[in-house]
């Protein structure tokens, strides 16, 4: 058998009570639950050569390593050939073993709250060969707890509430603390609760930390918030135990234990507002809050002139005017206002009146009021076709103030855009400006404005409804346009059309129309049906489209109102071909055939085509003829005038840029080189005008005569016009340039003198001199 020996030296680790047995080798085994031996050597089997559990106190405060225990194997002869090796939790770091002696030490202090037990494996090896001398043995080192953790609450501060006026012992809130020490060993984690602050209002249960009320009748209106400090202490509250504290903020919640009260029993107000306006506010005080402070105001017994409304936001009573106040009629009013809580708590209604009363006095102020009409609105009737300036009606208004200031009247023209009515500004008489027509408008709605003369800002409007009464001034007429036809094979007395009439007038007894036609009408007759309709019947048969394709039947329609109005409406009756059952087949006029087989319509069409062709031919010939006109100058031998055409219109009397009118009036003052000022001349050489021969009376007389003829001509246009005359005058140096009378003697002329006439006649000289040569 292999024996092993473990020596546990715990004298420095475990506080040893004074009344306990002395720590000797003989009772070490008893201390750890080991069987006793001789007190020094513990014998184990081969597979259990050492004890499997050691105890170690946590939080060791010594400077040296803490001794845990000693391992010893029977194989160790003390010659140093045995080596002890330790593996497992914390081996080599937290726990070190002496290889030679087997002593185990802890390198630092251990905290049970971090880890309560460590499992290690002990080995016995041959130092030289590292061969195992004993089987590996597992053992535990258990950390023995000490009271090193104080109780802790989950929160530093708690918030809670309890209704005011609660009974003693009413639970408020439960606060609990926790202790990290061992719950199963000693009293290190056994907590006791106590109250450090908050007495005598609250108490705490020492076992579970429940806070309860301790004082009756706590009033929120007196004190609302309380700070309570709770302590939790371990070691069952004994001396030397650790403790922790927390603060609990307790608020008394409101209950409806206070009735509303008016601070002022009498409240005066001044009233001058319109209907619905507020004249003031009245408020009662209620120390409660929230729903418990909600109030409702009312007037005791009600009131005809005033009403009170509760403002839910401010909990005030708003006094409003229910009817218009009249300073001249009554100046003072007095009534009582009641206030009460809308929500009542049944626990507090006994012996308390949760309502209060106040007296309100209202004094009516005298204000400048606008005029007041005697009626609102006005309804006036007037007959149509009333002449302009006729009387319609009268409106009246007065100033309700004591001064009774004068009032003037006017019509709001936005309501009378057609200006049909006028009003007297002094007495309010309404008259017509134009004749009224009921058929155009049955009602006229105008607004009359009454204004104080001394204060134009005080105005009042009143609607005036003018009804236009009917006068029988319109004649009846056909209700619709009728498409009437009669068959050629119709018989006498057959119905061809039923007619009716309408009248825009509205008689009091209703419409009654009478239909008549000429009694001498040989073709048709009419039968009045006495229901504002009439039947048109044929007087004969045998109608023919060849003889007459359409008949015009005048129908006289009369009403029965006064004065009687009548009108004549024409009914157009077409003659149509019908089948045997009277259904219309064709209403076109029948065309008589000619001997050559062509109808009249065909002949007319042919004639129109011929006329159109002739017009096209004539137009084409005229265009070709106009296109073939010879130019003014055919060749160099043409001796006719060279005409330069300007396609330009004068600008009238205001056109001073084109022509100088003074030149026509006095030819003698013309400039020698006067050109148009608004266009660039197309002449190759500058124009030079020779000074006119004085006393050209024949040209002047000619122009004056033509001017006088145009001025006295009644057919002349009503605007300025230019008349051009080809008159040379008798004093021309060139005599006549026309070649109309020189055809017979053309060869005897010598044209060399043309070259001396200047540049103006250069082209003409070249033409004639060249031709002669």
TrEMBL record:
Superkingdom, taxonomy of origin: Eukaryota
What is one cellular component GO term in this UniProt entry? adherens junction
Q: Which UniProt keywords apply?
A: Calcium, Cell adhesion, Cell membrane, Cleavage on pair of basic residues, Glycoprotein, Membrane, Metal-binding, Repeat, Signal, Transmembrane, Transmembrane helix
Which example biological process does GO assign this protein? homophilic cell adhesion via plasma membrane adhesion molecules
Q: How does it sit in the membrane?
A: Single-pass type I membrane protein
Entry's transmembrane regions: 602-623
What is the residue range of the signal peptide feature?
Answer: 1-20
Q: What is its main location?
A: membrane
Q: What is this protein called?
A: Cadherin-10
* Protein source organism: Sparus aurata
Q: What is the lineage of its organism?
A: Eukaryota, Metazoa, Chordata, Craniata, Vertebrata
């Amino acid at each position: 058998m292999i024996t092993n020996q473990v020596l546990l030296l715990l004298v420095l680790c475990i506080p040893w009570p004074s009344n306990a047995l002395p720590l000797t080798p003989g009772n070490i085994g008893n201390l750890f639950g080991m069987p006793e031996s001789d007190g020094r050597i513990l014998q184990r089997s081969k597979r259990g050569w050492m004890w499997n559990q050691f105890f170690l106190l946590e939080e060791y405060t010594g400077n040296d390593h803490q001794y845990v225990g000693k391992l010893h194997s029977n194989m160790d002869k003390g010659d140093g050939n045995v080596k002890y090796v330790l593996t497992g939790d914390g081996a080599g770091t937290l726990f070190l073993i002496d290889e030679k002696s087997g002593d185990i030490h802890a390198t630092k202090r251990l905290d049970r709250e971090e880890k309560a037990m460590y499992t290690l494996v002990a080995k016995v090896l041959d130092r030289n060969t590292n061969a195992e001398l004993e089987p590996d043995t597992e053992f535990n080192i258990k950390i023995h707890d000490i009271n090193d953790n104080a109780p802790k609450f989950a929160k530093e501060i708690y918030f809670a509430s309890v209704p005011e006026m609660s009974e003693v012992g009413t639970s408020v809130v439960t606060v609990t603390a926790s202790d990290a020490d061992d719950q199963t060993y000693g009293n290190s984690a056994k907590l006791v609760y106590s109250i450090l602050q908050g007495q005598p209002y609250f108490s705490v249960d020492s076992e579970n930390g429940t806070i309860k009320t301790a004082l009756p009748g706590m009033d929120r209106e007196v004190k609302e918030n309380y700070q309570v400090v709770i302590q939790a202490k371990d070691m069952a509250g004994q001396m030397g135990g650790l403790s922790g504290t927390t603060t609990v903020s307790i608020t008394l919640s409101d209950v409806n234990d206070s009735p509303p009260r008016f601070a002022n029993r009498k409240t005066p107000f001044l009233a001058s507002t319109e209907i619905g306006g507020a004249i003031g506010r009245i408020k009662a005080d209620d120390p409660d809050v929230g729903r418990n402070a909600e109030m409702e105001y009312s007037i005791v017994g009600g009131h005809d002139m005033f009403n009170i409304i509760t403002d839910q936001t401010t909990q005030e009573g708003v006094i409003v005017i229910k009817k218009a106040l009249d300073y001249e009629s009554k100046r003072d009013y007095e009534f009582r206002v009641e206030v009460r809580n809308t929500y009542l708590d049944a626990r507090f209604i006994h012996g308390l009146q949760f309502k209060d009363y106040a007296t309100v006095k209202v004094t009516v102020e005298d204000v400048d009021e606008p005029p007041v009409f005697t009626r609102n609105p006005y309804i006036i009737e007037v007959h149509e076709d009333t002449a302009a300036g006729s009387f319609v009606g009268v409106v009246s208004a007065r100033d309700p103030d004591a001064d009774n200031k004068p009032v003037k009247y006017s019509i709001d023209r936005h309501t009378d855009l057609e200006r049909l009515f006028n009003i007297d500004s002094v007495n309010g008489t309404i008259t017509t400006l134009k004749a009224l027509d009921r058929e155009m408008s049955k009602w006229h709605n105008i607004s009359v404005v009454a204004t104080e003369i001394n204060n134009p800002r005080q105005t009042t409007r009143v609607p005036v409804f003018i009804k236009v009464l009917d006068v029988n001034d319109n004649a009846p007429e056909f209700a619709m346009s009728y498409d009437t036809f009669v068959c050629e094979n119709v018989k006498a007395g057959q119905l061809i059309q039923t007619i009716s009439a309408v009248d825009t007038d509205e008689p009091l007894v209703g419409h009654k129309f009478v239909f008549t036609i000429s009694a001498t009408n040989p073709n048709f007759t009419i039968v009045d049906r006495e229901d504002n309709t009439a039947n048109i019947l044929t007087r004969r048969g045998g109608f023919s489209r060849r003889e007459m394709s359409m008949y015009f039947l005048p129908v006289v329609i009369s009403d029965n109102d006064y004065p009687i109005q009548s009108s004549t409406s024409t009914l157009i009756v077409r003659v149509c071909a019908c089948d045997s059952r009277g259904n219309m087949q064709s209403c076109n006029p029948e065309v008589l055939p000619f001997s050559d087989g062509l109808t009249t319509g065909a002949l007319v069409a042919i004639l129109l085509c011929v006329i159109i062709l002739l017009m096209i031919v004539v137009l084409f010939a005229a265009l070709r003829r106009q296109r073939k006109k010879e130019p003014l100058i055919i060749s160099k031998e043409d001796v006719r005038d060279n005409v330069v055409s300007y396609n330009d219109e004068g600008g009238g009397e205001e056109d001073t840029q084109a022509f100088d009118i003074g030149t026509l009036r006095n030819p003698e003052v013309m400039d020698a080189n006067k050109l148009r000022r608004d266009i660039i001349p197309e002449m190759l050489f500058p124009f030079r005008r020779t000074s006119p021969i004085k006393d050209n009376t024949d040209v002047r007389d000619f122009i004056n005569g033509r001017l006088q003829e145009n001025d006295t001509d009644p057919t002349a246009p009503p605007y300025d016009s230019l008349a051009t005359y080809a008159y040379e005058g008798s004093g021309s140096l060139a005599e006549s340039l026309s070649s109309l009378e020189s055809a017979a003697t053309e060869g005897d002329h010598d044209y060399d003198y043309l070259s001396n006439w200047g540049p103006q006649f250069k082209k003409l000289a070249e033409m004639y001199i060249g031709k002669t040569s």
